[in-house]
C-alpha cells in the first residue's frame, strides 16, 4: 500500500508564541505606516528598527543572568536601563545568547563594535512559503549562487515516479518555458480514459499505467489510465519535481509559493497503484523506467519482501528512493531495507499550525490542527460529550445535535476512535467541530479532513482529561461550552525541528539486521503539494496537505535529482553516501534531534538513519563510500531471495561473503559475541577539490563496546584517491544487550565531516544454550 497519511505534529503549548507573532505583526504594521520607513529627511530623527544581536554561546547557566547581561549591554548604548527594557523585543537565553531590540542604525553600529558581539543584523520580515520543507532544507530557489542555481534547478534530469497516477492539469506540471525532452528519453505517453496522449507535455514527458494484473472487479472500479483518482501520485510527483508556482494556499492557510525539490526536472509517471500496488506491476514499471531513460526513481510504496528489479535499476546507474513505512514508533517495522535502496524516514519541519480551544470557564488549550479562516467565528458552542465505547461513529451519528462541538473522552488506547469518519460525519450533520483524543500510537490520521465550519482537533490525554473534568462541573452550572479558533501558522526556530514523526517506521530491519535502516530522514509531516480536483475539497482546491513517509520519499528523490545534475558521474551508491555522511543530527536550535512516540526521546539511527538530509552539504561531501553493482549482486545471491537468509553468511566463488563488509556508509553488527572481536572493512574515495587531503578519524563508540580504527589517518594524493580502513569492535561487558549506537567521522581539518552511524548489539552464546 502507498504510505499516504499520518498524524499531525506533536502537540505543544504555543500560547506565548502566538502572542509574540501578534506583536511582530503589530510592529510590522507600525513600521510600514511610519513616515520614517520611506526614507530619512533632513532634520528628522533617525529611524529605529529591530536589529538582531548574536553573542554566540551563553556565558551564564542561569537564563535570567543571560537576559540581565543583554539589558546591561543595551543600556550602555541607549543610556539607561529603562530605555533598554522598553527597547528589547526578545532575549535569546537558552540555546545561545543574543537579543533583538529596537534601535537606530548608529546604535546598532556601536553594539557591533563591542567585545563579545558576533554579529548584528537588521531583522527581516519574510513571507511565509507553502512548501516550507524545501526552505527548511536550505534549497532556496531565489539564491543566484545557491545549490539549485548551480544545478540548473535539476534541468535535464528525469524523475520517474511509481505511484497512483498524476493530474496533468496541475500548474506544477505546466510546460511553459520548457524545451523538448532530453534526447535520452525513450518513454511514451500511454493514453486512456480522461487521459489523452496530449496530457503529456514537455514537463510531464511520459506516463504509463499497469493494470494487466487487476481482476475484473477492480478494473471496473478504476480509471484505467495514468489519471490520478486519489491524489497520492500527484502529491509525491510535485514534491519531487514540480514547477515553481506562486500565489498558492490551502483554504487561506500558508499562502505563498509551492515547488518541487528539482523544479526544472522532467517528470514521468508510472501508475502501478490502484486499490493497492502489486509487485508485478512495480517490476514491470522499473523495467520500463530503465528503458525509458529516467535518472531517479521515487517509490512511496511498501514492500514486504525482496524486489530484485530495484537492484537492476541501481545497476544501470539509477538511484532508487523508497519510503520506510508508517508503522512507527514500533521497532523492526522499517520496510524497503535492501542495501541498494535509499530508505527514507519522515520528520517534521519548523512550521506548526496552532489552534486555541477555549472552554466556557475561559480555560484555554493549544493544539495543532487545520482549521480554515472561515471556521474561526469566535463563538461558543455547546459541547456534546461521549465517553469510552460511546465514542463510535454509529452512536455519535444517531445522537449528535447540529450546532454542537463533539468531544470524546476515552481511555481505550488499543481501539482509538475512527478519526476521519467521525469528523467528516460531524461536519456533514452541521456540527461545529470535533475534539478527539490522540495518543501517539502510530494510527494514521487523514489531515485533509478539513471542513469549512467544523474543524477536527486532536488533543493529548492531559487536555482530554481537563475538558472531561470541565464537562462534569459544567453540567452542574449549565451547558458546557467551547470555541475553536482558526488555525495560525508559526514558523522558524520557535518550532523545534526536525523531529522524527511518530508514524515513521523504525529499525532494525527484520529482514536484514546487518544492514542499518532507515538510511536518511526528510520532511514528511504537513507537506503541501499538488492535488487532483476531487471532493471533499472541490475543483478549486489544487494543493493540499498530507503526511507520511510517502511525503518524505520524494523530498530525497528531488534532492538526488539536484545532486545528480551537479555530479552526473556519481553512482547511486556515491549519491547515497553523500546524502548520508553529511546528514544532520541536531535540530534548528542546536539540540539533538528528537523522535516522537509514546513519549519523545533522543533519536537514534533506527529512527532516522544517518540523520536529517542536508542537500547543500551533500553537494560537497569530501569522501564517499562507493559500491559496485557486482557487490550488490553478491549480497543478493547470499542474502536475498533464494539465499541463506538474513542471518547467515555464504561463499561467493572461493571467498566467504560477510554482510558487514558491504561498503555501506553505516555499520550494523547485530551479533557481537562477547568472547570475540569483529572487524569490518570500509573503503572511501576522495571526491573533494583537495587531492592531497588528510583525514583523521573521530569516533564515538557504542556503550559497552571498545572500538578501534586502523589506520586512524588517511592521506590522499593525486595517485591515491581510494583508501581502506578497518574498524574493530570488542564487547567490554558480558551482557546480553540491546542495540547501542555510535558513530565514526573522518575530518579533514576544514569543512568536511564525513560521518556514518553505527549500531551494535552484544550477544552471549551460552545465554541461548542455557535457555534451550
TrEMBL record:
**UniProt-annotated catalytic positions:** 163 (charge relay system), 232 (charge relay system), 550 (charge relay system)
CDD domains annotated for this entry? PA_subtilisin_like (cd02120), Peptidases_S8_3 (cd04852)
Give the keywords, sorted: Hydrolase, Protease, Serine protease, Signal
Q: SUPFAM superfamilies of this UniProt entry?
A: Protease propeptides/inhibitors, Subtilisin-like
Which Gene Ontology molecular-function terms are recorded? serine-type endopeptidase activity
Which family does the record claim for this protein?
Answer: Belongs to the peptidase S8 family.
UniProt-recorded name of the protein: Uncharacterized protein
This protein's source sits in the domain of life called: Eukaryota
**Protein's GO biological process:** proteolysis
Organism, scientific name: Panicum virgatum
Q: Which residues form the Peptidase S8/S53 domain?
A: 154-595
Which Pfam family, any one, appears in the UniProt record?
Peptidase_S8
Q: Does the keyword Manganese apply?
A: no
Tell me the ranges covered by the Inhibitor I9 domain, including all copies.
51-129
Q: Where is the signal peptide?
A: 1-33
Q: Which Gene3D superfamilies match?
A: 2.60.40.2310, 3.50.30.30, Peptidase S8 propeptide/proteinase inhibitor I9, Peptidase S8/S53 domain
Q: What region holds the Subtilisin-like protease fibronectin type-III domain? A: 661-760
